[in-house]
Write a structure and sequence with these properties.
By secondary structure, this protein is mainly beta. It has strands spanning about 5, 15-20, 25-30, 40-45.
């Protein structure tokens, strides 16, 4: 599952909105939980081996 992250704009936790599995790793789309911020980002995360 996604590693999780903190919003760089407001400091609130972010949740994994979507995950695209790749052969070795995955792209995870995060969105801020703060309704006023709504910051989104895409991160490439390695699978735990």
């Amino acid at each position: 599952m996604a590693h999780g992250m903190t919003c760089p704009q407001c400091g609130m936790p972010m949740y994994a909105k979507r995950k695209d599995e790749q052969p070795k790793d995955s792209w995870v789309y995060y969105q801020c939980t703060n309704g006023n911020c709504k910051f989104e980002t895409k991160e490439y995360e390695e699978k735990k081996r």
